[in-house]
Amino acid sequence: MKIIQWYPGHMTGAMRMMEQNLSLVDGVIFVLDARCPAASFNAKLKKLLKSKPVLYVFNKADLADERVDILMSAVKSMGAVCVKANSVNAGARRALTEAIKSLVAQKRETAAAKGYNRVFRFMVAGVPNTGKSTLINILAGSKRAETGDKAGVTRGKQWIKCDGFELLDTPGTMPPAFENQYLARHLAYVGSINDDILEMDEIALALLEELAANYPKRLEERYSINIGQPLEMLEGVCARRGFILRGGEYDYERGERAIIDDFRKGRLGRITLDSVEDITSLEF
After folding, report:
1. Could you read off the pLDDT of 218-258 as tens digits, one per residue?
2. Helix (H) / strand (E) containing 216
3. Which in 151, 198, 212, 282 has the greatest CB count within 10 A?
4. Is residue 140 within 8 Å of residue 93, measured between CB atoms?
């Protein structure tokens, strides 16, 4: 399989911008994809944040299954603060707001004791396509940040005013190199890496292999196929969906795109890709 590597030039500038603006914020909201929180954890970004208090948001939790709660417990056991969220559910606003404010509770008490009524600021960071901008729009109560379903929509910084605090929206940033290609594939599955630089046939077959090992019934129910080798399953999907070219050959490209799209949009059900071992190998 081709090595996955994606670190476009604008990300170097984004990391520099974030480092320059750290002194302006009181804390950091680190947005993770709940389906792959270990894969969407950027160790280089965490190192950049230094001593700032961090709130980890397990976003898109509506697309992850109950195993995400086990992963959250593992992160909390390391002393980190985290909360589960769903960016498409406005009901998450109150819980998120409370978690954000509690992140700087001591600072707020100190400021109040001195008679200061200051606005606290937070940087929102994470890898691309974890729902950072959508999360900000929910907290702001309106569409303030640019959103999209493609990696790399946000390119510059944006200050967003919310109820009692301000948020700095930042571009999604990847580590300069992926040391763990298994986790890198998880980012490819969820759309955090630009599809244009990926070998989508390899990604689709790898996704089928993982789902067959961990969620075989989802594949059987969605596509009415037998669980077997990845290529056999892909051909089964093509046959069931009528993805056939002239001459009776399978239209593999349409089949691959359908499988990836079904996964990303939750049509295969709620799925969590990462394991506790993946989480505990990191330093939150």
Report:
1. 999 999 999 999 999 999 999 999 999 999 999 999 999 99
2. helix 216-223
3. 151
4. no
